[in-house]
Write a structure and sequence with these properties.
There is one protein chain. By secondary structure, the chain is of the alpha+beta class. The protein has one domain: 3-Layer(aba) Sandwich (Aminopeptidase), CATH 3.40.630.30. It is built from three helices and nine strands; from the N terminus they run E-H-H-E-E-E-H-E-E-E-E-E. Strands 1, 2, 3, 4, 5, 6, 7, 8 and 9 form a nine-stranded mixed beta sheet that branches. It is globular, with a radius of gyration of 15 Å. Bound molecules: coenzyme A.
Length: 172
């Protein structure tokens, strides 16, 4: 199975929509991707697809967010959403999307990534509860599902505050 991880192209949009619908078994995340693509937080280099024999079977999106406290605002990234089509799950395709995405994010100069997701999945890539740094969300979620990762050494050193998501997330 030769899986290629590459940047999303305009012609992938409907396949990306379908992969998100398939993986999440609802339209919300697929619609979120479409909305984020039109938003200021969208970074074309950080919308990646997994392709198998010319078919899109996975997708990951990182968008720009801010971590804000009363004194300062720090740019960071949100990893959301990510999806691998149901029949291709548990074959490390998601892991490759995350790892390559993190490498590309670092290469673009980003210093950290925030994720709200499965506490059994993201720690394997180095994510830790964001509370470790004093980074919070306004969503009422258990501590271990709201996680952060330093892309570079001390990438979150001295950074604390509340994560401000693009408004497109409010509709999900
Ligand atoms: C989460 C997802 C992207 C992972 O993709 P994948 O290609 O199956 O991932 P990998 O093969 O790299 O890793 C599989 C691991 O993910 C775990 N995993 C998958 N879904 C999970 C979930 N809902 N909660 C916790 N762990 C999950 C599997 O148990 C497996 O764990 P193991 O390696 O310890 O056995 C994919 O399962 C998916 O699209 N799920 C539905 C949509 C979703 O929940 N997206 C994430 C939103 S934060």
């Amino acid at each position: 199975m030769e899986i290629k991880i590459r940047n999303e192209k305009p012609s992938d949009r409907s396949a990306v929509f379908d992969v998100n619908c398939n993986a999440f078994e609802q339209h919300d995340e697929a619609e979120l991707v479409d909305a984020l693509r039109k938003s200021r937080s969208f970074i074309p280099e950080l919308s990646l697809v997994a392709e198998l024999n010319g078919k899109v079977i996975g997708h990951i999106l990182f968008t720009e967010i801010n971590i804000r406290n009363k004194d300062r605002t720090f740019p960071s990234l949100s990893l959301a959403p990510m999806a691998v089509a149901n029949e291709y799950q548990n074959r490390k395709i998601g892991s490759r999307l995350v790892k390559i995405g993190l490498q590309k994010a670092e290469a673009l100069g980003y210093k950290s990534v925030i994720v709200l997701g499965h506490p059994g999945y993201y720690p394997r890539f180095g994510f830790k509860p964001a509370s470790h740094w004093g980074i919070k969300t306004t969503c009422e979620v258990p501590d271990n599902v709201f996680m952060a990762l330093e892309l570079v050494r001390n990438g979150l050193s001295g950074i604390h505050g509340i994560v401000e998501y693009p408004e497109e997330f409010n509709s999900v």
